[in-house]
Design a protein that fits this description.
By secondary structure, the chain is α/β, with parallel strands linked by helices. Helix content is 44%, strand content 14%.
Length: 271
């Protein structure tokens, strides 16, 4: 099945768009004039879109990207209030909204792929890191640049990056604010590939995942957790495996293997 087709669902918010095509939900930040820097309203819309994708049984993978030449350049500083006049609680409430979107990407069972088509800076970098997989384009520079502006990675970067590339390499990028170039992202295992068209390649990767048995994919995604002990893993894996064993798609996968044919699953069709 191709990753390209006519959307079965297209929702245009003020700052983002949400489209479902062939069982793949694509969330696009639509603020290209500022390299998709976000406002509070943008974050509210991103949270809603992520919840919508997770709740939809006909969505088998999620692609996150930005319009134009950027992925997400972080917070739109021209839209931020004067924090000197705000309370810690007011600032914390704003940061919590950003953290909730990162948390949703990190924890939802539906696999997510970041199509890093352009700069992913600050919280925008954290959005990419929170996805399960990343594909980068030639302009897909990622930067945890918080120290460059006298801040800490409040959105999750200092938790996510060490788990993806190791503590030493993560400290290099976090403490210096250096760019993670597209080539470096691939070399250190942060990105799956460097592609001429990051969105197209991410769609192909999402389609490959979509075409696997859905229960097995989601449960496998849940099991990938470096914080879980091996005992916890084994207990949860046993429960998940039983759900897979009695799942009709497992039966079809085994039958197809024995018949030397491609399995046939119930997936949305594409035009």
């Amino acid at each position: 099945m191709s990753e390209v087709g006519r959307p079965e669902l297209m929702t245009r918010y003020d700052d983002i768009s949400y489209a479902v095509t062939g069982g793949i939900a694509t969330i696009t930040i639509e603020r290209p004039d500022v390299y998709n820097a976000f406002t509070r309203d943008t974050i509210l819309e991103l949270n809603e879109a992520a919840r919508t994708a997770e709740a939809d049984d006909n969505v088998y993978a999620v692609v996150l990207t930005g319009s134009g030449a950027g992925f997400c350049s972080g917070a739109d500083t021209t839209d931020m209030p004067n924090w000197d006049t705000q309370s810690p609680e007011e600032y914390g409430a704003f940061l919590w909204l950003i953290q909730q979107f990162v948390w949703k990407l990190r924890t939802m069972a539906t696999p997510s792929v970041a199509a890093v088509n352009g700069p992913a800076i600050g919280a925008g970098c954290d959005f990419a890191l929170a996805c399960d997989l990343r594909v980068v384009g030639e302009g897909g520079v990622m930067r945890e640049g918080f120290v460059n502006v006298g801040l800490v990675p409040g959105d999750g970067g200092a938790w996510l990056l060490p788990r993806l590339v190791g503590e030493s390499k993560a400290r290099e990028y976090l403490l210096t604010g250096r760019d993670i170039t597209p080539g470096d992202a691939v070399d250190i295992g942060l990105a799956v590939e460097l592609a001429d068209d990051a969105l197209e390649a991410a769609g192909e990767l999402a389609a490959e995942i979509r075409d696997k048995p859905a229960t097995a994919v989601q449960h496998t995604n849940r099991l990938i957790d470096p914080q879980r002990s091996f005992d916890e893993y084994c207990r949860e894996a046993a429960a998940f495996q039983w759900e897979c064993v009695v799942d009709p798609e497992h039966t079809e996968a085994v039958a197809a293997f024995n018949d030397n044919r491609e399995p046939e699953y119930d997936r949305p069709t594409e035009d």
